[in-house]
Amino acid sequence: MSARPLRVAFFGSPAFALPVLEAIRGAFEVVLVVAQPDKPVGRGLKLTPPPVAARAAELGLPLAQPARLRRNPDFEATLRDCGVDVAVTCAYGKILPASVLGVPRYGFLNTHTSLLPAYRGAAPIQWALIQGEAVTGTTIMQTDEGMDTGPVLLQEPLPIAPEWTAHELADALSAQAARLIVQALSTLDGLLPTAQDESLATHAPMLTKEDGFVRWADTAAQIVNRHRGVAAWPQTTAFLNGARLKLAGLSVTEGSGQPGEVLSVTDAGLTVAAQEGAVLIRTVQPEARKAQPAHTWAQAAGITPGTRLDLWEPTDP
């Protein structure tokens, strides 16, 4: 490699990617930032740039926000003309075509928030929590045309604290990814690509609203793990007589009964039976109302021990 600073193009969009961008620009020359196009946000549908694009504009970095990458010669020319040595993707949100992957001399490196080949896909943080994993981590991989299928360049595990939700785990993984990408870029010529074992691959598809629905027929631990995983979106939803209830502050507690049966209402919250064990719910938000302590809602709604919350099961588990 030459003595001049490594010239890096950074592809990212959400706030999760900001620490990675900051780490890269602190050690190398960022010649281009690529983010998703601006999108309407809020009740007023104000056109708003993604956090990475907004930060690039603040820093005065060259910025591109192409609506598509495939069959886009203008963007390919922009990437080529900036003299990029290597590109880094972090939660960018678009599949990269071969014509783009081939532009940088060292190709593309991706920061993926799992220990590949586990949890390939759009939501590895969330699914690791939903599945009750005790350890996850960050993988720096060489990007190919597949979905997180490229060879592994660098990998580091990260223990998951039992109380962490998707918010805390994302923060920890973002910091880890920022450190590891600088390490990888500093030793590009010395990294040894290792092919992933396809037989060990698991998948982490994008979440849907139904992924946040409580399955009272699960164990209490499974219900709480799902709650941890969907904390950022779509959040945890239960049903009472068909009406939706947003739940927060869930934890495993003692108790037994029929799945979905209210066992007690105390100042600590609402205790509801699962298939095995029970769940303590601290906060409830009824439809079109503000969140409130669970016992306050229960008293106002006439919820007493023996009340049954609706059972919900996925039609295609």
TrEMBL record:
Homology family: Belongs to the Fmt family.
Superkingdom, natural source: Bacteria
Protein species of origin: Deinococcus aquaticus
Domain Formyl transferase N-terminal, first and last residues per copy: 7-185
HAMAP family with a match to the protein in the record: Formyl_trans
GO molecular function per UniProt: methionyl-tRNA formyltransferase activity
Keyword Transferase in record: yes
Keywords: Protein biosynthesis, Transferase
Residues binding (6S)-5,6,7,8-tetrahydrofolate, per UniProt: S114, L115, L116, P117
Xref: InterPro entries: Fmt, Formyl_trans_C, Formyl_transf_N, Formyl_transf_N_sf, Formyl_transferase-like_C_sf, GART_AS, Met-tRNA-FMT_C, Met-tRNA-FMT_N
Reaction equations catalysed: L-methionyl-tRNA(fMet) + (6R)-10-formyltetrahydrofolate = N-formyl-L-methionyl-tRNA(fMet) + (6S)-5,6,7,8-tetrahydrofolate + H(+)
Domain Formyl transferase C-terminal: 207-300
Entry function: Attaches a formyl group to the free amino group of methionyl-tRNA(fMet). The formyl group appears to play a dual role in the initiator identity of N-formylmethionyl-tRNA by promoting its recognition by IF2 and preventing the misappropriation of this tRNA by the elongation apparatus.
Protein name per its UniProtKB record: Methionyl-tRNA formyltransferase
Record has Protein biosynthesis as a keyword: yes
EC number: 2.1.2.9
